[in-house]
Amino acid sequence: MPNFKVKKIKKLILPFRKDEVELEWMAENDNVILIYTKVNEESFFLQVKKEKDSFIIKGDKHTKPSKIAYLQKSLQVFRDYFCHNEDIISEAFAFKHNALIEKTSLIAYDFDQLLAQIKGKIYIEIGFGSGRHLLYQAKNNPDVLVIGIEIYNPAITQVAKLAKKQNINNILLIQSDARLLLSVLKPNSVEKIFLHFPVPWDKKPHRRVIARNFCEECARVLGKNGRFELRTDSCEYFDFTLKQFLCFNSPKFTLKKNENLEISSKYEDRWKKQNKDIFDLWVWNLDNVCDGLNLDDFDFSDITFNANDLILLEKNFKNLTLKGDDYFLHFENLYQVKEGLIFKIAFGAFNKPEHCYIGVSKNIEFLFKKPFKIKENLKAIEKLKKVLKFHFDVIVFS
Ligand SMILES: C[S@@+](CC[C@H](N)C(=O)[O-])C[C@H]1O[C@@H](n2cnc3c(N)ncnc32)[C@H](O)[C@@H]1O
Hints:
seven-stranded antiparallel β-sheet, transferase, binds S-adenosylmethionine, tRNA processing, EC 2.1.1.33, Rossmann fold, alpha+beta, 398 residues, 20 strands
């Protein structure tokens, strides 16, 4: 993460603008100053951490912009206009100007961008690695948008480059945990979901992509004739997946062993060289057992605050963690702003926590973007409203 360390900073007079960087306002507590920063269409917090005899300035990790260059450029502006050169202790950010314009439509930098680009038929490939299978599907199905989701960022850049070289435009790549993606997609919107050679996690099955909740999400997002396809060298993962999908009423399965496909992935080549068996499991006809489909939006209209509420909230704030059956809510930090308070919270499902900043003045609002509308998040936010309404009085709100 780019950052620099400085002995002291000048008085912060905001808003401040230089070229495309706007430092708009700040929020503060005893340890940290957050600076609401905008570069072109993106907003994020720069974080000034107060240490004993110095300050560390870096990007806030939960609001960081999709383009690292935006952060680098903002740090550069902050250093040039709010610090004296002779006070700089160390510096770890290099900035190339053309990085600001480097952009490809083959990569979505967040779920909102991804959702905005989805139209027509879609396939999804989870953990596409070297991308051979994903590019093959895109080439052979020009009327389909093939969405690739990978947690390993270099794979995203590499496959986007390969697609450009081969003039393939019907792909959209995103860096994220695949377990998060399905829950933001519309019901019945996907034709195929590929999971090829997932990490088996034999010793830590809870880390597998496949889980009961994932199968329910497949059922929700797959269209009528849509199907899920697992290809694996792990007989155990194959069995495990089959069992997970057997909890539906009347699923249909196709099982194959050592089927040759036209395209072989990097991992498949490796396992074939070792003479390992390869298993295919196709699943479809998943009836909807999933609940929480018609979720209301996050609604803060029923709660308002006056000056006294804000004083009590600030006074009573605690690092509280609350747990429900399938969700949690954690109050991480509190910051003061000119006309109110900002809470940093973590919340949602245990395996897919969200981190957000919430602004509280007369009303409540999410700073930056809203979390996804999944039932665990909605439950956590309902709880948040109660906690705030009763000013952290544990006895009253629980
Ligand atoms: C064993 S490799 C297989 C890659 C590719 N499918 C192939 O057949 O060559 C597993 C890939 O899944 C990715 N991965 C693991 N867990 C993931 C998750 N939860 N969400 C998205 N990608 C994941 C890893 O980064 C890795 O690239």
